[in-house]
Amino acid sequence: MKAKDDNQRRSGEAAVEVTEGERPTLKTIAFMAGLGVTTVSRALKDAPEIGQATKNRVQLIAKQIGYRPNRAGVRLRTGKTNVISLVLNAQSSIMGLTSNMVYGISEVLSQTPYHLTVTPYSLENDPMQPIRYIVETGSADGIIMSRTEPDDPRVRYLTEHGIPFATHGRTEMGIEHPFHDFDNEAFAYLSVKSLLARGRRKIAMLAGPSPAVTYYRHLDRGFSRSIEEGGAVGVTFSGIDVDTSLGRIRDRMEEIMTGPNRPDGIVCCSGGAAIALVAGIEAAGLKIGEDVDLVSKQSTDVLKWFRPQIIVFNEDVRHAGRELARAVLRRIAGVDARELQSLSYPDEHELR
């Protein structure tokens, strides 16, 4: 009798349509699959006691009818939001940083029940503000954030409140936490070496705003070590850094390159800033690759099309997004933070 009922329900599968504007539910899938609601729910959660053929059929129906779990219902049942929040400063959109980071995170989350929200903030505002908001409103199960500081109050706050998170960048505060970072010390060291190999002796670097951000310290250590080993002269850029507006970088660079102590080699840690530097250099009547060499990091392939003479290191921000997503998900699952720390390294073979 049960088999007959199941066959009748399956035979009605083709006739079931979700009315436009009506939200598909577990009951909708159950009716179409000829299964109970509990079985459907477990199949969608990939429960081990449900057969693979049943899981495949249920998941296919769910995809075809556009089923999405009701977040409010999930939160009531489990206390979870199924949301990961990416907290980024508004300027990170330059040269595709935000889009590549979001793409990488989304690649990983697409295979899970989690959804991504982006929480922007301005560099002029308190970076703690969006973090407090997310925690106090319970609007995300985990947080991904960037621009870490050596003693980062956000890391301390989230650790004290037991909120899973991962950082794009490291800290120096004695708190073990998940992170993924690019080895900026190695990047700066290798960049100076590439300039020395081209006979450049007066070398400057456009880096972060100050030692207040950790990656600035890493860049400075690599730059200073390579300058000292090569017996070169380090030239200081005054009045500009990678947070300065591109127009101001361009104008200040023109001033510097028409002055008496101009560098003949430059290291830049931002693809967007590198374009502004080139504009200023050329406005001063100089040529990249002849009068001055420029080494820059980039997160997209724009610079090699813009000026082939620029020496380029690639930072795979999409890969960073994937690593950060995996780290925060595993942290939510209770994995030790020390197992969720990774680095990407510049490749000398990428030099062009």
From TrEMBL:
It comes from the Bacteria. The keyword DNA-binding applies. Residues 1-20 are annotated as: Disordered. Residues 1-12 have a biased composition (Basic and acidic residues). Signal peptide: none annotated. Residues 24-78 form the HTH lacI-type domain. SUPFAM superfamilies: lambda repressor-like DNA-binding domains, Periplasmic binding protein-like I. Keywords: DNA-binding, Transcription, Transcription regulation. One of its GO terms (molecular function) is DNA-binding transcription factor activity. PROSITE patterns: HTH_LACI_2. Gene3D superfamilies: 3.40.50.2300, lambda repressor-like DNA-binding domains (1.10.260.40). This is LacI family transcriptional regulator. It comes from Phyllobacterium brassicacearum.
